[in-house]
């Protein structure tokens, strides 16, 4: 409004000096705007100070409690593990030995008390000797079981005063691990909560400083406002506004004022009528007013316009535009509009120009709405009919339709990609047909010259008629009389061409029409090229991702598996899954999702999938696998986020990934799993009940340093484990909770417990899969099988070499029951060597187990974690050939660690693998070992 006042009113004259001074109120008066703003600032500062104090108290209290818990545990553990403490508990007078040490430790560590406690809960030490021998106040039962207890409890007086104590109770164990006593250390609540008091004065001081700044700032702003208004009172400003408003809305010329950000500041009545502006237009951005494209571009640009003609609806407007200040062009613009529609009626060209402008605007809106090449070509044909042509055909190079780079060799044959208009009555080439244009045709001349060709009268177009004489004759008979053909060029390369035909009573094309057709084709070509490039990248990404996903199901005895993978329409993401057989008839299931889309996400997915295979080969626990993956993602992110990356590199590092890793054991019927930011798997019982596994959620991969929790779930035979990515249950229109409920209903209604995994996959995809997924969807359904107990044989092996023959005999009898006499000799040799090594080098308990499935698995476990090493024994060695023989006769062998030691396993293929195993006889193998002088 100040802009308008300066432009249209006379220069300001200072008010008379005799004005009464009682109208000049105080700068910070409540009646003034500055005073009201000041009061609001004071209120905000007070509220912020109060909130800061409350937050500080709560945060400091919590931090102090956490620090107290840590210090208590450290002090208690340090005292409990100090040399001689365990022996002191067993001494005749523990208090005499421990009391001075406890007081010294209390003063040295800074805690308020260190108490030694007997296993019956009696104090051996205390800061006040009279409390020694009394019952300890606190929980000691978990500590007697070897665990650490942290709690808040009251107790006898302390040197620092009474109050609730934060205390830790830890066990004291002897060399054999027996709990001989307890140690408690802690800090009283008084010491904990007094730590935040010094910060209170800092917060209050900051609030006072903020109030002072608010006072100074408000005063300065009030003075500036008075200078800007030259001391005018509100009544005088209102009178000036009324005069200005009366003049502005009385003129018969539209006036618009916009600021530098393209926001409409003012519009008079005439401008509202000419542009059909809504009532609430003032104050809104110009781009939100849905004005014609040219008017919007004019109002938002900084160019100066003099007597320009622009179409707005059915009106032709004469437009003038100037900056609000001649020397400050960035402050906004003033636009005046005058209706010249009556003048335009004198010339038919104005109407034609208006229609062409509308058609160009429609082409910008209607062409390129999708990234599909054929659909974009069809949109071009539909936009041009019937406003510009009666029949439109679009022919594209085969390479463009496939997403490849177009070449001039492709001009020899083009494929009909779109047809628009009355093609039913016209003999044009059908959709999808390959057309080879002859050299003299308008189409080939267009491709060769790189510009449009006009055939105003097709009866004289010899080249066009020569292309297909019969079809051309029929077209002329049915009224087709004029043609404009233009190339579809993008980045200087022709993608194809567009043919515009007029029939019947439509006027023939003129040279002005040729220019318009070229402009229309140029806009469409950009959209076609974008669609072509997207098609290429999408195809490449889908091909890459599908090549990295499993090709088929691996051989295993534990699960019946089926899966589905649906790539996103807008771009392939990084979803992946895997089924990995593990030793001991176990199977690992993996489901992961890399953040982002495109080739970078797919390549990252391949790297993570390869890493999972590597870690599973090492047979690591599920939480360790996720821990290694987390480290890998962190390293990948650091490597790809360095400043040495080339310009335009897709993706600046790995922004994160989620993963669910599960191991199913068909012998025990249990599934151990852990997840890193991934959705919970669904478990469908044999009776059809659906539940989500309660696996503790951990941070996504790539954050680093976060532990991963492990959960073990019992799965009865016939249960189904459903793994999926978030694209199945979450999108822009559906929250995660809603998607999980929909998945639960789909599994329950499908009767997943009675269906095959393949059927369950299809039912879930039909129920939840969107028609055009915005994110990748991966789904894995696994139905469990239990290993028959009749196919499992286990023996406890005493630590005595004399029992090895009996183990071989039991193994031979079991193989005879299973009908595996053909591999009995090699199996006896393998289990004999493994048991002998376990007895000689391992620690009890030693167990042997045979599993008979698609392969025969021999397992020997012991309590040692020492890894066996395969080596070649020299001729003078008396031993060292056991594992070499196992490796020779088994198809696969290896070692995996357990919570109680390790397991050495070996696999043999029954029947089919017998000949391979005996290709080298045992005698030949031994002779090679003993006779090689190089060893």
Automatic annotation (TrEMBL):
One of its GO terms (molecular function) is phosphatase activity. It is a multi-pass membrane protein. Gene3D superfamilies: 3.30.450.40, Histidine kinase-like ATPase, C-terminal domain, PAS domain, PPM-type phosphatase domain. Residues 368-538 form the GAF domain. CDD domains: HATPase_RsbW-like, PAS. Residues 242-307 form the PAS domain. The keyword Transcription regulation does not apply. The chain crosses the membrane at residues 38-60, 200-222. One of its GO terms (cellular component) is plasma membrane. Keywords: ATP-binding, Cell membrane, Hydrolase, Kinase, Membrane, Nucleotide-binding, Phosphoprotein, Transferase, Transmembrane, Transmembrane helix, Two-component regulatory system. GO terms for biological process: phosphorelay signal transduction system. It is found in: Cell membrane. Pfam families: GAF (PF01590), HATPase_c_2 (PF13581), PAS_4 (PF08448), sCache_3_2 (PF17203), SpoIIE (PF07228). This is SpoIIE family protein phosphatase. The lineage of its organism: Bacteria, Bacillati, Actinomycetota, Actinomycetes, Kitasatosporales.
